[in-house]
């Protein structure tokens, strides 16, 4: 004889499952898995994944700057070209009034912020969808993918700021002493951008055709945001609502005031923008973490 | 509620996992349609269970073979253990660092070089750069990557990717090592080295879960076997019992697939021992296999006879030319000394016409049935040494 045949067992639970017995149709509802997020643990995991963020960003940058001149030109020329067009159209033709600051500088400040946002959206929204095979292999907090693309966009932004410095020279002015206001504004800008990138990136995994809508959104956004014109062009009583929906409006306006006009950013608008960005960030993060659990199932 | 389990413990409690059964295209368009259907009261959702009520408790240092047919949920379970996937219900708790080789395309990122991948993987496991550097040479040496280590992983052959993936998983000192059925991509030499390495880490106290269809390999590594069938744990026992149960069930399935419409049928078969009355078979003693074939085919043909353990490839195969005359045909074969140790075996047979290259199948190769052999058990080989087939060799020791 071939030895003792194994029996159908489930000894640990002391329940025998006789062969052929109808299997239960589902788990008892109280067992259904619910994700619990512990902020400390989440922060710890994100910190542990910093190498991955760096490597992902580095890979993108290296691919882009393989031909250093072209890569650099890409980061510089796009905003410069837009800036030139805006100067022609909005300054010469539409005659946007920018007071003491040269229009070109005025528009360029807005374009830096806008380019940062749209770069992060264009790359970040696809960051999960493009890495699906990886998501099925290793565990890591998935928010590192949009984060890495934002890091890449940040490098482009730094180059853009360098060009801004050159422009200050060309126009022979200096940034106003109030430029330190840029620091809190930067935080608002990052929070909003990351929040939206989180939502879009996970949305594209579940709704693949959303990616076709992205270019439309970013192309319309440049006109829907006060990049070429001041925030004041938006009807006064709608401004608060507008900034609540699109905090970038207040951020750009704030940068201009701090860098070009030597004024403090409008406190009320900035606070609304900050609150709204926080909602986008936290809300986006929660949505992301909730949907994250199913990504491998549809990958 | 969560007790403090030691590093290397794997615990799943009442784990359920389901997938969409209807094929999904993941499009906004479809979702809108779906929502419209739902408004009309049609739920339109169809789920299928991939795992049902899986309870496992694996202690640190245990080596568990996870077996089961395709689609039984093995990979799904491993993915949930690595936290790549989440359960629908239940608790999954894996303590400590996890080294996993779940897909062939290992490595973290195809665009990064082998070297970068190794460091990145270490970082994800929570190792410091210095700690990875200390093991770097071992990994490269084990994976036999040599100069390719500074090439992008996407240019590696699948064998190289698997080697890198295994080396990384097995050398970064995980507390838990999970290996899915990917080792088969490597050549035989590398497979053996992987098994050796698994034995090594097992002896160092790493918990191992090993999925493979290479049952002898599983047996050589694992002490415990978990047999999954249609998403439920059918058997959780010692590896021998689990494998025996699994093999029996595959055999039962393969017998069920009947061959109809072939020119020859196997009417009867008998495997008997020395004595006419005593039908039990004994190791190293004479055995007679007698077959009766029916069918109206006339002509010369080759009769093949094989014996296997489980449905794997035969332990031995013998053949004989026969002349068929249209009626029932009886043929017997005597094996003077049966070279099989104690166990249950499957008898296979097939008949093919001579001289025709195609269409020559008179009775296709199939398992006729099983027989048990009594006699000595085989001696156990050292761990991680795979025995291709059980053969009893009469022998005598002298010292
Ligand atoms: N992402 C997925 N979406 C839908 N069905 C899936 C998915 N992954 C696995 N399945 C299904 O779950 C079952 C178990 O699959 P798997 O765990 O890969 O089995 P195994 O590894 O044992 O061959 C199969 O029926 C398979 O089709
Ligand atoms: Mg599998």
UniProtKB/TrEMBL annotation, chain A:
This is Transport permease protein. InterPro entries: ABC2_TM, ABC2_TM_bact-type. It is found in: Cell inner membrane; Cell membrane. It is a multi-pass membrane protein. GO terms for molecular function: ABC-type transporter activity. Keywords: Cell inner membrane, Cell membrane, Membrane, Transmembrane, Transmembrane helix, Transport. It comes from the Bacteria. Belongs to the ABC-2 integral membrane protein family. The chain crosses the membrane at residues 69-94, 100-117, 144-172, 178-206, 213-232, 269-288. GO terms for cellular component: plasma membrane. Residues 1-26 are annotated as: Disordered. Its main location: membrane. Pfam families: ABC2_membrane. PANTHER family: INNER MEMBRANE TRANSPORT PERMEASE, TRANSPORT PERMEASE PROTEIN. GO terms for biological process: lipopolysaccharide transport.
From TrEMBL, chain B:
Keywords: ATP-binding, Nucleotide-binding, Transport. GO terms for molecular function: ABC-type transporter activity; ATP binding; ATP hydrolysis activity. This is ABC transporter domain-containing protein. SUPFAM superfamilies: P-loop containing nucleoside triphosphate hydrolases. It comes from the Bacteria. The keyword ATP-binding applies. Belongs to the ABC transporter superfamily. Residues 10-255 form the ABC transporter domain. InterPro entries: AAA+_ATPase, ABC_transporter-like_ATP-bd, ABC_transporter-like_CS, ABC_transpr_TagH-like, Bact_Polysacc_Export_ATP-bd, P-loop_NTPase. The lineage of its organism: Bacteria, Bacillati, Actinomycetota, Actinomycetes, Kitasatosporales. GO terms for cellular component: membrane. Signal peptide: none annotated. The keyword ATP-binding applies. CDD domains: ABC_KpsT_Wzt. Pfam families: ABC_tran (PF00005).
């Amino acid at each position: 004889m071939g030895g003792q045949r194994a029996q159908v067992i489930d000894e640990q639970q002391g329940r025998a499952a006789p062969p052929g017995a109808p299997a239960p149709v589902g788990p008892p509802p109280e067992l259904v898995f619910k994700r619990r997020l512990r902020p400390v643990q989440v922060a710890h995991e994100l910190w542990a994944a910093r190498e991955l963020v760096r490597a992902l960003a580095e890979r993108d940058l290296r691919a882009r700057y393989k031909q250093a001149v072209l890569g650099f030109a890409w980061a510089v020329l796009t905003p410069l070209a837009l800036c030139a067009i805006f100067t022609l159209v909005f300054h010469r033709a539409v005659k946007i009034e920018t007071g003491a600051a040269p229009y070109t500088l005025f528009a360029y400040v807005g374009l830096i912020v806008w380019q940062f946002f749209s770069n992060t959206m264009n790359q970040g929204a696809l960051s999960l969808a493009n890495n699906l095979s990886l998501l099925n292999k290793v565990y890591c907090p998935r928010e590192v993918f949009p984060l890495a693309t934002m890091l890449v966009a940040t490098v482009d932004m730094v180059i853009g700021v360098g060009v801004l410095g050159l422009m200050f020279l060309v126009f022979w002015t200096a940034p106003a002493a109030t430029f330190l206001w840029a620091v809190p504004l930067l935080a608002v800008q990052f929070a909003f951008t990351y929040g939206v990138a989180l939502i879009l990136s996970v949305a594209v995994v579940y709704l693949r055709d959303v990616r076709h809508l992205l270019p439309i959104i970013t192309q319309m956004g440049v006109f829907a945001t006060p990049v070429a014109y001041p925030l004041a062009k938006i009807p006064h009583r709608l401004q608060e609502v507008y900034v609540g929906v699109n905090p970038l409006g207040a951020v750009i306006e704030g940068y201009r005031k701090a860098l070009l006009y030597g004024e403090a950013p409008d406190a009320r608008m900035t606070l609304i923008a900050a609150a709204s960005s926080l909602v986008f960030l936290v809300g986006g993060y929660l949505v992301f973490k909730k949907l994250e659990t199913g990504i491998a199932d549809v990958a | 509620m969560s007790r403090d389990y030691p590093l290397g413990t794997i615990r799943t409690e009442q784990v359920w996992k389901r997938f969409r059964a209807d094929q999904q295209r993941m499009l906004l368009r479809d979702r809108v349609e779906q929502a419209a259907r739902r408004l009309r009261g049609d739920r339109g959702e169809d789920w299928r269970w991939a795992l049902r009520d899986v309870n496992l408790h694996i202690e640190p240092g245990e080596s568990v073979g996870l077996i089961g047919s395709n689609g039984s949920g093995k990979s799904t379970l491993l993915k949930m253990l690595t936290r790549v996937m989440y359960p629908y219900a239940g608790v999954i708790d894996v303590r400590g660092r996890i080294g996993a080789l779940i897909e062939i395309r290992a490595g973290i990122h195809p665009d990064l070089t082998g070297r970068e991948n190794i460091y990145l993987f270490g970082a994800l496991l929570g190792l410091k750069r210095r700690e990875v550097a200390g093991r770097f040479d071992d990994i490269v040496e084990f994976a036999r990557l040599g100069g390719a280590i500074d090439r992008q992983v996407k240019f590696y052959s699948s064998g190289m990717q698997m080697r890198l993936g295994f080396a990384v998983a097995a050398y970064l000192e995980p507390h838990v090592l999970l290996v899915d059925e990917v080792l088969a991509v490597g050549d035989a030499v590398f497979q053996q080295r992987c098994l050796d390495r698994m034995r090594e880490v097992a002896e160092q106290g790493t918990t191992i879960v090993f999925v493979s269809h290479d049952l002898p390999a599983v047996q050589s590594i694992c002490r415990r076997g978990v047999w999954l069938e249609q998403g439920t744990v059918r058997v959780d026992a010692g590896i021998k019992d689990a494998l025996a149960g699994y093999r029996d069930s595959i055999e039962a399935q393969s017998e069920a697939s009947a061959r109809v419409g072939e020119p020859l049928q196997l009417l009867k078969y008998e495997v008997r021992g020395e004595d006419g009355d005593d039908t039990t078979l004994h190791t190293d003693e004479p055995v007679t296999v007698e077959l009766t074939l029916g069918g109206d085919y006339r002509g010369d043909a080759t009769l093949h006879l094989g014996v296997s353990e489980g449905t794997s490839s035969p332990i031995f195969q013998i053949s004989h030319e026969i002349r068929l005359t249209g009626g029932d045909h009886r043929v017997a074969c005597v094996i003077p000394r049966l070279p099989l140790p104690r166990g249950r075996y499957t008898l296979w047979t097939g008949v093919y016409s001579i001289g025709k290259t195609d269409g020559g199948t008179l009775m296709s190769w199939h398992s006729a049935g099983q027989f048990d052999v009594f006699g000595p058990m085989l001696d156990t080989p050292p761990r991680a040494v795979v025995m291709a087939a059980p053969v009893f060799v009469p022998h005598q020791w002298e010292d």
